[in-house]
Specification:
449 residues; alpha+beta; Tumour Suppressor Smad4; 6-stranded antiparallel β-sheet; 6-stranded antiparallel beta barrel; 25 strands; rod-shaped
Length: 449
């Protein structure tokens, strides 16, 4: 015996299914065989009931639903189904009509007419009469004598005076069997007054559970997002730490310390001292061309000041004592002790220097790092001075711990001049300052030398 199900009430009333499988599941879950609307048929549970086959019979069994399963208006846990029975999933919920079809008729199209099914109704008389009172589902039963706008048609289908109502057929009263009268079945729970849709406590509980589950799902998604963000942040921090570590490993190391004794001997012939007419030494100069000595711009200002006052200035070195012919200062030479700039000057001598220093290149100067030891090789009244100084800053001017005579060249470990000492002359005044050799190269280029 095949099972044919007609949905007669609910959001999808009018649907029909035919089953030959042993178990048919009813509910709002999408994997049910008969799926009710998940948003409109809220009186039905997700897993509401099952209809199973036992031989040629079909049995309906409640699957632990919240609002119960009703067969012909009576709440049941399990019931043998007969052809024409109406199963209601929750009071006021979706209803289906059962049709038992022999296998040979399974391919035939079912009748489109929906017959009234005798089930119990609240306003029917009690006892035997109640069981016989027909209940018509007005949501699916068509009316041929009603119009939605004008009400019942007058005069029957062809007009004219209203047709008299047919007399009810005479029905012989049932003969009561001997013995005590049968007890009447309990009437079903009354529907809410006023036609307003109301939900039972169990249905509200299910709706609250669904809302709480949605909140839990949202919280879980938020936690997953935070975990992903934390993982990305940790990865970024790890990458930054790795980059910093690699940069520290690859940074240039300070160069080797210069050999003071060797450089003193090598560069001594190129060093000159500037002294006034009384023999007082006030600056150091070093030969960069045969007739040009480099010194600081302030030393050139000292020569100009002495000559303006009527004094004389001479340069003294291994090449003898020579007079000063001309002088130049870098345009950005500072004019006060507090000012900063490119403190570089050139002195032209009336003679030839016996030896020249080797000037470094700008890229070599740019490669200097704090911690590198340089040699300040200068001249004083007592003779040549070779003073090691340690760089503390290489951005802009050179800064270092130590002092030397003004205008003394700053030599790296290879003996090349990387800058000019511009002050102070003693360590008690403050940290040493030097002008990079870039300014000297620029001044020479400007003079075409």
């Amino acid at each position: 015996m095949l099972l044919r199900i007609h949905q007669v009430a609910g959001a999808h009333a009018g649907r029909m299914w035919t089953f030959d499988q042993p178990v048919v599941r009813l509910g709002r879950m999408p994997d049910s065989d008969v799926v009710f609307d998940a948003h409109a048929d809220l009186d039905a549970s997700g897993r509401h009931a099952e209809i199973s086959q036992r031989g040629d019979q079909w049995i309906v069994r409640d699957a632990g639903s919240r609002n119960g399963t009703f067969v012909n208006g009576e709440r049941v846990e399990e019931r043998l189904l007969r052809d024409g029975d109406v199963v209601e999933c929750g009071y006021g919920g979706p209803r289906i009509r059962i049709e038992l079809v022999p296998p040979r008729q399974a391919s035939a199209t079912p009748s489109a007419n929906t017959e009234a099914v005798p089930i119990a109704r609240p306003d029917a008389p009690t006892g035997v009469a109640q069981a016989m009172a027909p209940y018509v589902d007005e949501s699916t039963e068509p009316s041929f004598f009603a119009d939605s706008s004008t009400g019942p048609m007058q005069g029957g289908p062809w007009g004219g005076p209203p047709a008299p109502a047919p007399a009810p057929p005479s029905v012989a009263p049932p003969v009561a069997p001997a013995g005590p009268p049968p007890s009447a079945p309990p009437p079903p729970a009354s529907a809410p007054a006023g036609g307003e849709k109301r939900y039972g406590q169990a249905t509200v509980g299910m709706m609250v559970d669904d809302a709480l589950q949605g909140l839990r799902d949202q919280q879980a998604r938020t936690q997953r997002k935070w975990k992903i963000a934390a993982g990305v942040l940790a990865a970024l921090v790890g990458v930054v730490c790795l980059v910093v570590a690699v940069a520290l490993l690859l940074r240039p190391k300070p160069g080797p310390a210069p050999d003071i004794a060797a450089l003193s001997v090598t560069n001594a012939p190129a060093l000159w001292r500037l002294q006034d007419g009384s023999g007082a030494v006030f600056c150091t100069a070093f030969a960069v061309r045969r007739d040009l000595l480099a010194t600081s711009g302030r030393c050139v200002m000292g020569i100009e000041s002495r000559q303006t006052g009527g004094g004389t200035v001479q340069v003294v070195g291994e090449g003898g004592t020579l007079d000063v012919s001309r002088m130049w200062r870098h345009p950005q030479t500072p004019t006060t002790p507090e000012a900063t700039g490119i403190d570089i000057g050139l002195v032209e001598i009336a003679g030839a220097a016996p030896a020249l220093v080797t000037l470094s290149t700008p890229p070599q100067v740019a490669a200097l790092r704090p911690g590198t030891t340089l040699l300040a090789h200068g001249q004083s009244a007592a003779g040549a001075l070779a003073l090691p100084v340690t760089l503390t800053d290489t951005e802009g001017a050179l800064s270092y711990a130590g002092a030397a005579p003004y205008g003394a060249p700053l030599l790296d470990a290879s003996g090349m001049v990387v800058g000019v000492h511009t002050g102070p002359a003693t360590a008690a005044v403050g940290p040493g300052q030097g002008t990079r050799v870039d300014g000297l190269l620029g001044l020479l280029a400007g003079l075409g030398r």
